[in-house]
Design a protein that fits this description.
Layout (H helix, E strand, L loop, with lengths): L2 H16 L10 E5 L2 E4 L4 E3 L15 E5 L7 H10 L6 E5 L8 H10 L20 H7 L5 H7 L4 H4 L6 H9 L6 E3 L5 E3 L9 E6 L9 E7 L4 E8 L3 H14 L4 E4 L3 H12 L10 H9 L15 H17 L7 H8 L1 E4 L2 E4 L6 H15 L5 H13 L47
Parallel strand pairs: 4-5, 8-11
Antiparallel strand pairs: 1-2, 2-3, 6-7, 7-10, 8-9, 9-10, 12-13
Helix pairs in contact: 8-9, 11-13
Length: about 425
């Protein structure tokens, strides 16, 4: 990936050539430098650092890409490199894993499923003849789980800095199912369960411009059963997205709709107000009453969920907790795919370059609303109900304990003599009025 790495590769090639037996009759070396070797038969061996135009002007017979999972912009680079093999060349791509969702991972998955022409070879730590369990135990003492997965186990899922852990991703994958209906623009709305009149629903939306790389998306959660019932992902203008949201809201019993109140979200919210959809999310009931029923014009800034650096961290933290604890069941394969490429970059969780997080953000808003409001949170209601049922009043009278040292005005600890202790009117003849003074 760097010039020094490329030059080191050429050193290895030269060592290998010098070590070959004489009977192989290798061509003579015509010229050589730190980055290449030219042979007398016209063949050349070059090692080049990563760049946008690496190898583009070549007609290669063999291409070797080293540590492909760690090459920045490898997807764009591979598009150019692949064309250099059009004359019949071959390619060897080598790397330790670096999470899921990148081009290297994609090529490996396709190769393993026989969907491309690569032969997938997985070399774990134990293929080395001098490594046994004792070596592994000693080697991993000071290694993190990520390092073990990456350097020794060839585990893609556990090797990356994904927002969700490998176990949490596995949990999600177990619930994936195909939708029972698809509707809306480009059939972008997926339905897993239809509306039930006795159930309550919330819809959270992330709005995009409609003609760029991002998508507009929403999640519909059944708060009664704590499960995902509908989802949308598509490229539609913000005002048309409002119509899609209103349709989903009507389908699910006039569901509460919460739109991310950002630049494009304003247009969606204004359209929802214009078409008369009244069950919109407000941070306070006062704002909702003044906006919808007051004499003033609607205050769009009061409607929806405002995402900033603080609130974004809060809703993502809640989302991770909900997934980890299994509070809400999710069925979407599209959402699962976004989670696989939703990673930590420094201290910020975001989509990998070239990937999307629209479903993740809309899901985060939905789970935040679901968990934050006890009236719509089935888990909180169940917990509160159980606590109330556990309360009881014991009206059984307590017999007077005449033998108690307290009844004689005696403090068994010998620390303090409570005043007026021998008083009538209590079960054991003591006055406990001082407790409430």
């Amino acid at each position: 990936t760097k010039l020094a790495v490329a030059q080191n590769f050429i050193k290895k090639v030269k060592t290998a050539m010098r070590s070959m037996p004489s009977w192989l009759m290798l061509p003579d070396v015509v010229s050589q430098n730190k980055q290449g070797v030219e042979l007398s038969n016209g063949s050349t061996i070059k090692a080049v650092p990563t760049s946008d135009d690496a190898g583009r002007s070549e007609a290669l017979s063999l291409l070797i890409v080293d540590e492909a999972a760690f090459i920045r912009n490898f997807e764009e680079l591979w598009m150019g490199l692949y064309s250099t093999l059009s004359t019949g060349g071959r390619a060897i791509i080598v790397s330790t894993p670096n999470g899921v969702g990148d081009k290297y991972h994609e090529l490996c998955v396709q190769a393993e499923n026989k969907e491309n022409e690569f032969n997938f070879i997985k070399l774990m730590w134990d293929v080395h003849p001098e490594r046994d369990d004792a070596w592994f135990d000693n080697e991993t003492k000071n290694m993190s789980k990520k390092q073990i997965a990456q350097e020794l186990m060839c585990d893609f899922a556990a090797s990356g800095d994904t927002f969700l852990s490998n176990s949490e991703l596995e949990k999600l994958s177990m619930h994936i199912r195909s939708p029972i209906e698809r509707w809306g623009p480009d059939a972008g709305a997926w339905v897993w369960k239809y509306s039930l009149s006795e159930h309550k629903y919330i819809i959270a939306a992330d709005v995009a411009r409609g003609d760029a790389a991002d998508y507009s998306a929403f999640q519909c959660i059944d708060t009664t059963e704590s499960e995902q019932v509908c989802e949308f992902k598509g490229k539609v203008p913000p005002d048309q997205f409002a119509v899609v949201l209103a349709e989903a809201g009507k389908r699910y019993g006039n569901a509460l709709i919460c739109v991310e109140n950002n630049t494009y979200g304003y247009a969606t919210i204004m359209k929802l107000v214009e078409i008369g959809y009244s069950n919109l999310y407000f941070k306070s009931e006062k704002d909702k009453f003044n906006t919808l029923y007051g004499n003033k014009s609607p205050e769009i800034s009061k409607i929806g969920f405002q995402t900033n650096a603080v609130s974004r961290g809060q809703i993502l933290t809640k989302l991770e907790e909900v997934v980890r604890l299994g509070t809400v069941t999710f069925y979407s394969g599209r959402l699962f795919d976004e989670f696989k490429t939703f990673i930590w970059k420094g201290n910020k969780a975001q989509a990998q370059k070239g990937k999307n997080d629209d479903l993740v953000i809309s899901t985060a808003i939905a789970t935040w609303l679901f968990e934050a409001d006890p009236k719509r949170n089935k888990t909180s209601v169940d917990v509160n109900s159980a606590m109330l049922k556990a309360f009881a009043v014991n009206k059984k009278s307590v017999p007077q304990r005449s033998t108690s040292p307290w009844s004689k005005g005696f403090n068994p600890h010998g620390v303090y003599q409570w005043p007026n202790m021998p008083a009538s009117g209590s079960a054991d003849g003591l006055d406990y009025g001082w407790l409430t003074r």
